Amino acid sequence: MTAPERYNVKEAESRWQKAWDEKRCFAATEDAARPKFYALAMFPYPSGKLHMGHVRNYSLSDVVARFKRAQGFNVLNPMGWDAFGLPAENAALERGVHPQKWTLENISVMKSQLKSMGLAIDWSREVTTCLPDYYKHEQKFFLDFLKAGLAYRKESMVNWDPVDNCVLANEQVVDGKGWRSGAPVERRTLKQWFLKITDFADDLLDGLKQLDGWPEKVRLMQENWIGKSQGLRLRFDIVNAEGREIEIFTTRPDTLFGASFVALAPDHPLSLELAEKNEGVKDFIAACRKLGTSEATLEKAEKNGFDTGLEVRHPFVKNKTLQVFIANFVLMDYGTGAIFGCPAHDQRDLDFARKYGLPVQPVVIPPDADPCAFTVENEAYAGPGHLCHSDFLNGLSISAAKAEVVRRIAQMNKGEGTTLYRLRDWGVSRQRYWGCPVPVIHCPACGVVAVPEKDLPVTLPDDVDFSKPGNPIARHPTWKNVKCPTCGKDAERETDTFDTFFESSWYQFRYTDAHNKERGFDKAKADYWAPVDQYIGGVEHAVMHLLYARFFTRALKKCGYVSCEEPFTALFTQGMVTHMSYKDEDGKWIYPDEIEKRPDGALARKSDGTPVTAARVEKMSKSKKNTVDPVEIISAYGADAARLFILSDSPPERDLEWTEAGIDGAWKYVGRLWRLALNADFGGAPSKEDEPMKRKIHVTIRDMTQDLEKFHFNKAVAKLRELSNALEAFKGDGKILRDGLETFVKLMSPVMPHLAEELWAQLGHKTMAVDEKWPEADPALCASDSVTMAIQVNGRLRATVTLPRGMEKQAAEEAALAEEAVQKAMEGKAPKKIIVVPDRIINVVV
Fold first, then answer.
1. Closest CA to 552 of 204, 166, 206
2. Distance from C-alpha of 123 to C-alpha of 544, rounded to nearest angstrom
């Protein structure tokens, strides 16, 4: 075909996207005869606009999908929308538009934007979690979890976001504030629905050991979040309260002789009992509740306590008593809601003890320390050592001391050794409208009754009022009023909706059978595709979405839905996209295009000359006015140029700084490749450049294949550039040039798929580049042009020598004797024999 002299990127990309769609290139079906590969990037929330983080995330997954497809795998690469959530409710308040209308309009816009990237997605499997045809199935899952004992309801202290007016999971509280609203979180007591993730705590921990395709940092984050610990439950006798005890849990029973106080959680039954008689206790508990229930938040907060006036007896030290405080850093839902404090060996306890003038007695000292001289001032000692100042424990190691204390306490019938976890059951209730309704009914006579399966889905009412804060379905005049399916009497629907992480915990299975109306998915189809072979997304989901999805998969397996236990075999967490941000002297952010360089080189605002006082690279953010619109970039430069820059400028696991020079350079390279194919002369005669070029082609195939397998995408792009440079400079056999260009097009196809199709057609092919097999490297052509051999004298290494490949046999002896180190080792003696082991060793015998 005759190609235009200038590459029309908009026309070409639109044309090839249409061609892929018409041919249904990326539609996946089960095929037992082919190896499957399930590639999945975390689906987006439909905010209405694509951002550069999306472009990076989906470019990475698209390269994987296209690469594996070319290798012959049966690839599933789907897309959907994580469509429930508070932003839609906020939009309803701010814009006066219904959440569903706002959400579906945003999906339409974002889908068009994603399609402009030329992604190899099977859009026929698209899912939208806010639609009844999706969430009716998770309502059925929940009912099955109820039957299996994996779901239950209880009164619980919760994190309450006073702005969003809903409950937050501990993982959704960041620095004491709601992860979306940024409002300080409070504690409240509410009846909540929970899923029993703690039933799988050990299994979730053990499963991490098998996830060698996950980043170590993510596995460690989950391990710490589950937080398995061996410890002691110990009951202290309350002084002057016959028969009354305070049960504590500790992971450091070895430090019991260093105890100087006992602390209760603000919501401990004894704390609440004291609050009924003491206004000071009541006020202190109220202040504590403003901190929320997140352990991380309480750890960072100032350590405050209230002296109850109570004391408890030390179990081992006669006449020793410990003061009892209520403390803001003790959690009711961890252990027993009470602890003993050993200030010398816990920093939190030390801070508390110094504040309230409590004793600090070291009982564990470093291996070489003097027990009489060792003290703790402002930093607790948490290192290794042996016991001291501890009566019968003196001289024991920490582990031996722990075991001995547990043994004696059990012997005294004052407690027992036990295992506890930081992991709490997953609270899935949310007091909001835009979520999946919890499918239960509350009957005054029958209690909690499951909605019959034939009545699913329980759908949301359309006529809701967002003019008042709180949950609009809780105050809806009719929606919650129903008849009890058991007794027929008047009853009420549950007005809580599910946490949105409920939807994202199983969507990977829905993609395997997206149009099944009877079930969430067919088990045989799920078993064919699952688990996901490569999952891609942000590390910020390590202890929320990723942990919940691992639990949910196990719960689904227990209920007979799937065979696998892990949802994602391999995980890749990409870095953020950053951009230069600017502030003026008043600390206000300035858009980059509002800035100019003055004659003296300083930066200033164009409109009024206000100087720029701060310029630094930061994560793209609307508030910092440093975002870049992907739609504008793709419109100006094309999707291939955007993909190329995203993939080439930084290792994908690291942050990527967006620069105008970078995208401009990528666009210029696209033009160079177009001209390379356009101007290629395939009539060249054989020359001395032919063999090196053949080697270059096959070494590139080998190296790029390895780089793509290892997610070294920036290195893979560098290999492409090296090969294109070599092809531009090549003056030799036209057949080798054609082979090189065709190979290059196949290699570039996952990275710049539209241009690959254009060049493939320009090379005279009637087929599509997307359907071409991935090239295979010839090992013989990948061998090095030289070989390095060890030179030994009487079996001892004296030197090495590098020889041209093919010359090692003929030149080996001469090269060995020319080495100065070899001559010195021979001490002037003539060699009796020289033994050459090709490619490895030259052994000189004297």
1. 204
2. 27
